[in-house]
Write a structure and sequence with these properties.
The structure holds two protein chains of two kinds. By secondary structure, chain A is an alpha+beta fold. Chain A has two helices and nine strands; from the N terminus they run αβββββββββα. The chains are: A alpha+beta, B mainly alpha.
């Protein structure tokens, strides 16, 4: 019975998080991202799930790329020759965008973040950690009482 | 009643792999692990050459950098350490030259008297402190050796030279035990490993008056790691050289599979040096993530030495964070643990040291999750560099033209989250047991555990936020 109650509470928390992850009013978001050895400006862009995202990539020094993890789409830009992307942000969570054109020694570390909110993936794992932590204390005390 | 991990796995469970004749014969053969070392030496020669002449200034198309900092690191964190303990030390080519020099032979057992000065390592340094400092100092240059081939050449060449010089002066594997920057964290995390080298029957060892595993005989050298294989109880300082399998006339050594993490409960040689290793590893993981996988350009400029001020700021903050701030936060929670427990007779040092071992599973999880974030986006470079290791236009395996192809990046966050949760569970499982070892009564152990549990939970949440938040 206690196990069923624990599972119910856990399920409620997880379900609430998924509800939180429901898309807000979808909108069109435009970002102009400047790439320069070895960072992007802005380096973190935040949208809501369901938004249509348009990106214009500008390079301020050499040929840079833009590959978006999870979405598998990319573009690139030379100085004076911009790149562009358009996609629907339908996957919640934080995704790294990274340079896809070798641009110098720190190229593999040239990254930025796209946060598609609400970041249900993070909150899901955070909730699991908290449930485990609190659950372990409850279990420990119950073992004590049972033994006692 | 048997103590079961998660109520499922008996902590005393062992499965001896060397009961299979093929594996036993392999372990007793003098060809093993020498052949693995020689093969590795061949790969390291290519790594060094590619570091010296390998063309690209960007490391992602350099053989040495990709093999060492992607393939080797990932193998180490995913497989070698968590499953096979110090299996890397078994095949590491760094000390092969000093072994050769000391023994006067590469293959045969030439006698019990080793060459070289054979000095004893200073007693005050018989711990992890030198390794702790050297590893931390090595990470100061992470912005160079993970991206610049020549820097990797200098680093690896320096380590090989140092191993040789220390082997000339000091006895046996003093370098591996007390100096090698890679050795310390492997030792710490090998306590979590799912494999071990141990003696089988203690009675046989007790009745065997000449401890050949320690002094050696015509079949094998005395333990190069200066352990006593007839009675050691944790993986930390066993380099798995397998000499004890060869020198034991009673076939009393075993290579066992076991539940992960059981060494964490072995209350032997616990100390502040190992505690600090755990803190340093957590600190470095955070700094590495911020500088390598974080989006902040100014941090990257600091790490790659774009300006001297920035670089010195990076070194100062990194050192302060890893050596002082992380341990200070943990000390605060240890103090709370003592206060909550009400156990005045237990020293704060004991509480601090014992609970620091809860950071071993979490730290390993943090590094595995970090490494997933490196290998999935960048692993495909390996296909290129194995076909053209010196950037001379070769196409040895027909994979030179394979483009950079990140894989499973959509699942990356889920993988990292799942790994952190899994290893957090291990930390909690062993933490409750460590608490019982630390405090005299059950009540004190339960109360004293709560602050440490809060620390581990906060640390896990912090890394979750960093990786996927």
């Amino acid at each position: 019975m206690k196990n069923i109650r624990a599972i119910s509470i856990f399920s409620f928390i997880v379900y609430s998080l998924w509800l939180m992850a429901s898309p807000a009013q979808a909108a069109e978001k435009f970002f102009e991202i400047k790439a320069k050895k070895f960072s992007y400006t802005p380096n973190i862009i935040t949208v809501n799930r369901g938004d249509t995202v348009k990106i214009r990539l500008l390079s301020e020094d050499v040929h840079h790329g833009f590959f978006l993890d999870g979405y598998g789409i990319k573009t690139s830009a030379h100085p004076g020759m911009d790149g562009s992307l358009k996609f629907i942000a339908d996957k919640p969570g934080r995704y790294t965008f990274r340079c896809s054109v070798t641009c110098g020694e720190f190229h593999p570390y040239m990254v930025g973040y796209l946060v598609v909110g609400p970041n249900s993936r993070f909150w899901l794992f955070a909730a699991i950690v908290l449930v485990i932590g609190i659950g372990s204390i409850i279990t420990l005390n119950r073992v004590k009482k049972t033994n006692g | 009643m048997a103590d079961k991990l998660f109520g499922l796995i008996d902590l005393n469970w062992r499965f001896e792999l060397t009961k299979f004749k093929l594996i036993r014969n392999l372990f007793k053969s003098r060809w093993f692990p020498l052949l693995a070392i020689i093969l590795n030496l061949f790969i390291f020669v290519i790594i060094l050459i590619s570091g010296l002449i390998g063309g690209f200034s960007a490391g992602n198309y350099n053989f040495g950098i990709m093999i060492v900092w992607i393939l080797w690191w990932v193998m180490l964190m995913f497989v070698l350490v968590p499953i096979f303990s110090r299996a890397w030390c078994l095949m590491c080519p760094f000390p092969v030259f000093s072994d050769w020099l000391q023994r006067g032979a590469l293959f045969a057992v030439t006698g019990l008297k080793l060459k070289g000065l054979g000095l004893k390592w200073p007693k005050a340094l018989k711990n992890m402190w030198v390794m702790n400092i050297l590893f931390l100092v090595t990470t100061f240059f992470s912005g160079f050796f993970t991206v610049r081939p020549l820097a990797t050449f200098i680093l690896l060449g320096g380590i090989i030279l140092l191993a040789f010089l220390i082997g000339l002066v000091f006895e046996k594997r003093s370098f591996c035990l007390y100096v090698c920057p890679v050795s310390g964290f492997q030792g710490l995390y090998s306590q979590f490993a799912m494999a071990e080298v141990r003696r089988k029957d203690p009675e046989i060892c007790k009745n065997h008056k000449v401890k050949t595993c320690y002094v050696g005989n015509e079949c094998g050298y005395g333990c190069p790691w200066m352990l006593t294989p007839f009675n050691f109880t944790k993986n930390t300082y066993c380099g798995m050289c397998l000499e004890c399998f060869k020198s034991c006339p009673h076939d009393n050594m075993a290579f066992n599979l076991r539940p992960p993490g059981v060494d964490l409960l072995v209350d032997e040689k616990r100390g502040l040096d190992e505690a600090w290793k755990a803190f340093i590893m957590l600190g470095i993981a955070m700094v590495f993530f911020l500088t390598m996988q974080g989006p902040w350009g100014f941090l990257k400029d600091w790490v790659r030495g774009a300006s001297l001020t920035g670089y010195l700021t990076f070194i100062s903050l990194h050192t302060a964070f890893s050596l002082l701030i992380v341990p200070a936060i943990f000390f605060f929670f240890s103090y709370l643990s003592k206060s909550f427990s009400g156990a005045k007779e237990v020293s704060l040092k004991k509480i601090f040291t014992n609970f620091s071992y809860t950071l071993v599973p979490l730290g390993l999880g943090v590094w595995i999750a970090f490494s997933v974030g490196i290998v999935l986006p960048n692993g495909s470079y390996i296909l290129h560099i194995i076909s053209d290791p010196f950037a001379w236009g070769w196409n040895l395996f027909g994979t030179r033209s394979v483009p950079w192809t990140p894989v499973f990046t959509g699942a990356l966050g889920y993988l990292q989250g799942a790994v952190l949760v899994l290893f957090y569970l291990f930390s909690l499982a062993y933490g409750t047991r460590l608490s019982k070892q630390t405090y005299p009564t059950d009540g004190q152990a339960k109360r004293g555990w709560i602050p440490i549990l809060i620390f581990l939970t906060l640390a896990t949440l912090a890394f979750l936020w960093l990786y996927i938040g």
